[in-house]
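Students often ask what a holo structure prediction actually looks like on paper. The answer is less mysterious than it sounds. You provide the chain, you provide the ligand, and the output is a string of discrete structure tokens encoding the 3D arrangement of the protein together with zinc ion.
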Amino acid sequence: MRRLVLALVAAAALAGPPAAPAIEGQLRTVLIPVTWGPQPLTDAQVRGLADGAASFLHTASFGRLTVVTDTTPWLHAFDAPPTCTNIRSIRDAAGAAASATGIDLPGYNRRVYLLPYDVASCQLLGTFALTVGRDILVVGRFRAETIAHELGHSFGLGHARRELCTSTCTLDEYGDPRDAMANAAGDFNPLEKSLAGWLPAPTPLAEAGDFVVDQFEVPSTLPQALVVSTAAGEYWIDHREPLGNDAALTGPAVDGIEVRLRAEPVLSAALTLTPSTLVSDRQDRTAGVVLPGASFVAPGAFQLDVLDHVDTHVGIRFRWLDRTAPRQVQIARPRATRGIVHLSWRASPDSGSGVFRYEVSLDGRRTGSTSAKALDVTTRTGPHVVAIVAVDRAGNRSRSASRRFIVG
Ligand SMILES: [Zn+2]
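The corresponding structure tokens follow.
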């Protein structure tokens, strides 16, 4: 009998999508204060904002990103307060005022417009900032971490959200109490640094065991993020230390771990942003941190026991809690063309750890496994039987599904 020849179509799917190019090198940025009259910042304060944001991003990126910022004096761009949320008209007025003074705004990688907040004309309650593509508008919110936050959006970073649960759960879009991609001043978290291409690949937790996670504020040779993949998505685990952009942090925040769930990307103002959701300590007893001696449980999926905090790293014990087998798959009618048999199947969504792979057998012989829901094989003419078992990440196996077919 001829050997069965197998073509694995799923190799690319197992490797994951290609990483986006890193945000690194020099980013030429200009800060442009624009006004109809009031000038609430001195030139030195504008320079201080530019330097503060550049310093934050240089540290957050482990020195890979250098924001080179020019600043302009206040430009008189309006006769009266403009519509404070209309970034396009503000950009156009600022561009006209800038080119009249010989500044080439289109030549910059990022443009940051600083606009005084005018309570009488601005319909929004309070200062704010927003980013559209490569243009950033800061209205009254003149803080270095705000500019770093908006530049973070321009790199594809979403908000550092937080889920708080009592009897029900609510999602706070800006709820992370430490992260600059929320309303705080602390360092970008490891998922954000990974999205920007600054952090080495995180350590996946797939088998039960003990692990360490080091701080992520400064470079390290130890793992700086751990990731558990489940049916609900990727859980990212990190530990903050009072170093780098987190130098001012104190208390329980720097003694345990944070756990956050990577969210689906959202489209916003010409940008694709990936948010994250802090889910550790849902009841908020310890400011969203799981301390040594405590555990984080993703019900029906996995448990993390926080063992200790030594030097700048935290010890963690990981195990799966998922004891539920995936549902049996439904195999579609195989289609044969030019000697290649196209196998495909439908699977019920799995909860808990989530399906990791499908094991495919042909005529009682294991022919391969794939994370996709399809596989091409070549085989001889005649009758055959295909059988498929779904296996979840915790090792639970579904009942085998089988289907007979004939290659003519
Ligand atoms: Zn934002």
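Residues 149, 153, 159 surround zinc ion (CB under 6 Å).
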